[in-house]
Amino acid sequence: MAKITSIEISRHRLPLDPPFKASWDGRPRTGFDAAIVRIRDDEGREGVGSGDLMLGFEGHEDLFIGEDPRHVERHYEVLSHLQFHYGRCWPVDLALWDLAGKITGEPVWRMLGGRADKVRLYASSGVLRDHGAMAETAERFLAEGFPAMKVRFTSSAGGRESWREDVKALESIRARVGSKLDLMVDCNQGWRMPWDTSAAWTFKDALSVARELEKLGIYWMEEPLHRADRRGMADLRQAVSIRIAGGEMTRELHEFRDLVEGRCLDVLQPDVALVGGITGLRRVALMAREAGLAFTPHSWTNGIGVLANAHLTAGIGEAPWLEWPYDPPEWSLARRDYPMQTPLVAKDGWLHLGEAPGLGFALDEERLAATRVG
Question: Is residue 329 a part of any domain in this protein?
Fold first, then answer.
């Protein structure tokens, strides 16, 4: 029986020049932080996870040392308790799955059910550009083989003056590419950055926006209301033909149960690096499947987080797309995937996962050494 012998966490920061000004933030980001989790067993194998900052984990390594890394359900329970008391430490779960795959010689997607070894991607933009530049971005995504694109609306933190300007940007995209791309919209109302104290949209605000989005044939409307407004989401879902998506920052699995039972959403979007890990979210994926809802994770962390979400999505199967954070030059693949030896590659809008054991990637040790902090 394999046993965990050590857990090591290192923290890294990639300088960003030019800065990345995320639509949901308002403050230009001049660095991209990553925490790398390495879990080793008594035969010298190493599993790696990343995607959240691992705040609050140090000092609890003893809860895992000496245990079999493949006992992921046991480890999930411990991590869920740590989340309650301290913070989100789900990259540990990703590292455990990576290590379990290396022990068994299987890719994670197969260990999770093996429905597919690839996932279809939608290009997820992050920068608020002028209308013409947004249309050019859509053209580029279409030329690269992506079937769909997500457009960000401004948050109260800054950007365009109002959602009406955001709608004009969508109109410019439609005028340029027609119906060749499916379009989704992230309304950025579900949560706020720590310094942003403005209120989220009311139900009537969201309904007004949804009526305009219906005219443009938008596929889904993401986070149109505060995450706690379940009644509003359910009512909005019934009032409009657009799919309502959300749940990317929902913390607890019982909250997803309530969202499903309340028929609040059409699309569930939790991220394995931020919520529940692979072990927890496979429950949500199957819950969504049984309820006839879509499960397609949020994945705005780094390439390791994207890859972990892809393995879950492929293994469980039937997600229409997976989010592919990509908006060069500010958010390039080289920036997003800097901890990895080779950035992930989309081929004609698909990510192929292959047969490599575990999550199937290697770290760029030189880059990690150069960016290490703390």
Answer: yes
Whether residue 278 sits in one domain with residue 131: yes
The answer on 135 and 91 residing in a single domain is no
Q: Quick: pLDDT tens for 22-78.
A: 998 878 999 999 999 999 999 999 999 999 999 999 999 999 999 999 999 999 999
Instruction: Answer whether residue 289 is part of any domain.
Output: yes
Give residue 9's domain range.
4-106+364-373
d(CA 325, CA 332): 9
Give the predicted TM-score (pTM) of the model. Answer: 0.96
* pLDDT over 70 at 160, yes or no: no
Which among 257, 295, 273, 272 is positioned nearest to 115, based on CA atoms? 295
Beta bridge partners, 100, equal none
Q: Give the whole-angstrom CA distance, residue 56 versus residue 40.
A: 20
Least confident window among 38-42, 232-236, 250-254, 256-260: 250-254
Is the CB of residue 260 less than 8 Å from the CB of residue 239? no
* Residues 271/297, Cβ–Cβ less than 8 Å: yes
Residue 207 C-beta-side C-alpha neighbours within 13 Å: 9
Instruction: Give the contacts of 198 (CB within 8 A, at least 6 positions apart).
Output: 156, 192
**What CATH number does the domain containing 64 carry?**
3.30.390.10
C-beta neighbour count of 113 within 10 angstroms:
15
Give the integer Cα–Cα distance in Å for 116 and 121: 14
Q: Which residues contact 169 (CB under 8 A, 6 or more apart)?
A: 129, 130, 131, 134, 151, 160
CATH number at residue 154: 3.20.20.120
Contact 278, 257 (CB under 8 A): no
Domain tally for the chain?
2
Domain assignment of residue 85, yes or no? yes
- Residue 268 CB partners (closer than 8 Å, separation 6+): 245, 246, 247, 256, 259, 260, 284, 288, 293, 294, 295, 296
